[in-house]
Amino acid sequence: MRGIAISAILVLVFAQIASAAQTLTVNGEALDAVTLKTGQSCTVEVVSDNSNPYSVYIGFDNSAVLGSFLHQQTMPEAGDLGAATEYSVPEFYGYFVTAAGSSPSPAAGVHFVFNYNPSTVGIATLKLYDSTLTVLLDSVEIKVLESEIGSAITYQGKLMESDDVADGLYDLRFLLYDSPSNGNLIGSTVEANDLDIVDGYFTVDLDFGNPEAFYGEGRWLEIGVRPWNLSDPNGYTVLSPRQRIAATPHALGLRGVYVDSDERVGIGTTTPTQNMIVQDARPRIGLVEDGGNAAMLEFHEQENQLRLQHWTDYGSTWNKDLMILDGDTGHVGIGTTNPHQKLHIMDGGIAFTDSVNPVDERLLYLGITGIGPDRRGYKFSWRNDDRSLRSDAMILDRTGDVYFMGGNVGIGTPSPLYDLHINDSADAFVKTESASGEAFFVADGSSNSGLKIQKDGTARAYVYWNSANDFLSLNDAGEDRLVVRFGRVGIGISYPLAKLDVVGGPTGITGISAVANRHGVYGKSVGTSHYGVYGESDSGYGGVYGRSSHGVGVEGESTYGWGVAGFSSSKQGVYGNSSSGHGVEGYSYSSSGVYGSSAHGYAGYFDGDVYVVDNVSALSFTDRTPYPKDLTTAYEAVMSMERLPDGQYDENNKESQLNHSMLSDFVRSEDGNRDLSATVSCLNEVVKDLVRKQEELGKAHTYIEQLQKQNELLEARLVKLEAMIENKPLK
User: Before 227, cis peptide (omega within 30)?
Assistant: First the structure.
């Protein structure tokens, strides 16, 4: 059978309003073009946007009308002298219209109405000219298509009789069914009597009188044949099987549905401007299940909103608004008719499914936490396939707090190994900042809480709070390297006894200052029996070691006790070494500036010059200081201290000036150098002896002076005697 087209009328393109005072409208709309079917008409209006009188021509060039174009009405707005006169010449067919008058005078609006009814397929252009028929004011292109066909079809067939083609007049009866056997009769019976069949072939037009006869479904044609000269209704021979008529691509007679030549569908309108337009006072689109359940989904426009609603009983009972698209704001509401945001969901959540994972683990749900007034925020949760809760993943509280309920969080990594795992190809930082308050990292564990430091996945160190023993620890290689406990800091010791307690290693505390006039280690004590800096070493180097390029290596200041105190079982209690300043400097208001005590070695050992500002206390030399047994030993010791011979003596090197090989045994130290205390004792004895001898020499000198005076007196007397003898005058 031949294809069936659908009758329609289409408004193609909305026209731009002409800039002239007079314009054309089609069916009341300003259009550039319109499409019509043959036999279908439209109205064309001449419209003026002002009240000025005018005269114009309306019609078709070269009289290409493709149908009829008739003046239908002159409106009062054209004025009391408004008129339309037919104008027909070979170059133009139409009307000459004039808007004029004084009672009433012309007014803005529709002035003249015409009816256009096409009868021939083609394209015609309706034009509006000025009064000279030379200036085009407006135009509308009219496309005329073939008119709709209706519900009739043309059937062609071939009739065989006794294994030969039929030829002659026959009566044929046609019945239309919806099934190849039995089924329902569609429409009425069609009879074609006295049909002339030539060589078996025939053609017949069939109209079963049912607009739904060809609605797109399959149909079967039952054909009955009888001789042309019989009138008995039972005289038909029914041919078998029924002839199948294939489903048509387009349905006939779609009531209320209009499809134009551009395949745009109009429901409730014959001028669709989109692929499908539904037009009504309350337009709706319903989706109804045909399986017997009385429910319906309905799309409709209401209050400038597009609504998706759910109805029961096939639309008789409204259930709820499922979704709202607000035309004023562009907001979408689900569960609410007043959406406040681009997507507003009320009393529900959003589910994200994954078909790859097992069924009971493939639903991620975004919803509201709590019930009733306790609804505090929103949460992501994993749910089972039946939507029952599996576990909460994340909660966003209305206070702004975010909770991760379980599992690990990865930043820069898809496979986090910890509660929070940050990975970056370059540097990775975590920053806390507060404009007015505090900024902390808070760790709160039932046993230990702190910071774990790794390298390539291996733990290197920990900074943690030991909850069992209440102390802060820096742990390296399984050992507590630094401990803060009871306000004390311990290095190498778990129970520090001082504010800073250092145990282990060759040097307890090393202080180095690279800044001029600064201290490598500075300690101060304001108590009556404690130390500013206290260092103790059982073996190895000194208890306190200070080194400085310019300033003081170790400086101690104390009001009552020792400024610097050092105790050592085998090495130096206090060791000082300076390249330009003082190796050890001590200052005390009431006690010893530098105090040294040693069980075996030297209580004080100085490699270089020793500078004493004030006197050296006599208590520095005790009974343990060696004394020579006699003056001979003392004089031998003092006289043995000679400078090196020429060639070995270096006046610029104080350490290479004394000839240690010439020292007597009494003043020679264990290392071959000079024993200062023995030297001092020898010097003391020699000095005392020299003092005694000086005293004796003084006495002798006094006696000599007395003898000299006596001698002078004797000499004077002798001179007098000699003068008397010689009787010479005295001078």
Answer: no
* Cis upstream peptide for 104 (omega within 30°): yes
Distances in Å between the alpha carbon of 209 and those of 45, 108, 176, 283?
39, 50, 11, 31
SS3 assignment, position 671: coil
pLDDT digits (tens, 9 = 90+) for 577-635: 766 666 677 666 666 667 777 666 667 776 666 666 666 655 555 555 777 888 888 88
The two three-digit tokens of residue 542, written as one number: 């000194």
DSSP string, 356-379: SS-GGG-EEEEEE-SSGGG--EEE
Task: Give residues with Cβ within 8 angstroms of 444, minimum separation 6.
Answer: none
> Which residues, listed in sequence order, are joined to residue 76 by a DSSP beta bridge?
none
Q: What is the 3-state secondary structure (H, E, C) of 167-197?
A: CEEEEEEEEEECCCCCCCEEEEEEEEEEEEE
With beta carbons less than 8 A apart as the criterion, state whether 174 and 155 touch.
yes
Structure tokens at 556: 């101690």
Per residue in 657-713, pLDDT (tens digit) is 888 888 888 888 777 777 777 888 888 888 888 888 888 888 888 888 888 888 888
Distance, CA of 521 to CA of 527 (rounded, Å):
19
- CA–CA distance, 583 with 342 (Å, rounded to integer): 80
Total residues found in the chain within this entry? 731
Q: Indicate the range of 318-327, 371-380, 405-414 predicted with least confidence.
A: 371-380
Whole-number Å distance between alpha carbons of 63 and 33: 19
Q: What residue ranges define each of the domains in the chain, with the CATH number in brackets?
A: 10-145 (2.60.40.1930), 153-245 (2.60.40), 280-345 (no CATH), 506-618 (no CATH), 640-690 (no CATH)
Give the amino acid at 684. Answer: N
- Report the alpha-carbon distance of residue 546 to residue 522 in Å, rounded: 10
For residue 271, how far is the Cα from the chain centroid?
Answer: 50
Radius of gyration (C-alpha) of the chain in whole angstroms: 64
Rounded to the nearest 5°, which phi and psi values hold at 103? -145, 80
pTM of structure? 0.33
User: 385, 377, 432, 428: which is closest to 405 by C-alpha?
Assistant: 377
Gap between the Cα atoms of 698 and 696, Å rounded: 5
Q: From 556, 552, 551, select the one nearest 588 (Cα to Cα).
A: 556
Q: Of 364, 339, 341, 368, which is closest to residue 353 (Cα–Cα)?
A: 364
User: Is 514 within 8 Å of 549 (Cβ atoms)?
Assistant: yes
Joined together, the tokens standing for residue 187 give 């429409």
SS3 state at 162? coil
Average pLDDT over every residue of 450-454? 80
